[in-house]
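Problem: given the chain below (211 residues), write out its structure.
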Amino acid sequence: MNLKKEERTCLFIDGSSLYSTSRGLGFDVDYKKLLDFFTSKTHIIRAYYYAAILDTEDYSPLKPLTDWLSYNGYFLVTKPAREFTDSTGKRRVKGNMEIEIAVDMMEMAPHIDHAILFTGDSDFRRVVEAVQRQGTRVSVVSSMRSSPPLIGDDLRRQADNFMELATIANNFTRRQQADTQRPRVGNPSPIRHPADQMSEPDLDDDETDIL
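Solution.
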């Protein structure tokens, strides 16, 4: 993984990307274990989590997660998502966090040694390059083992290091199938994405799954 204990490191977690990737690999993310894992390997300065939330809902299914994250070591960044109906009558949701992530990465770059970006979106290649020019090492967390692969070639080539989520996932995830068979006596439920138990809208490639 090429993580160094003495490096000042910042996590930038695109919530929808991590959810989609882990779901495709059959994992549920435990966000407490995720932060504990990286904290044990390197000097975490800040852990950002980005989520777009429908502002038309009185209660968002993301709220339990975002509330927990904000009180347990994560720096939460949210913005309203937009829901609409396309020409075919399908429900669509727009709400990507690319600008927010890019701005925070650029602002933090002078203060850290290593940026770890959880996304597979090749649109981030230019901001990764810009952060690298400031002397900051950039690792990208996504997966080549999903079908189709969820990491763009341009982004993977630009990053200093690519972390395969399937390889490190056992440190901070649990398998859904195993959980249904394992007794939970005395074990609190891990902090997971609430959408793991819910259906989601049909989305195009340029539209963000806000769950």
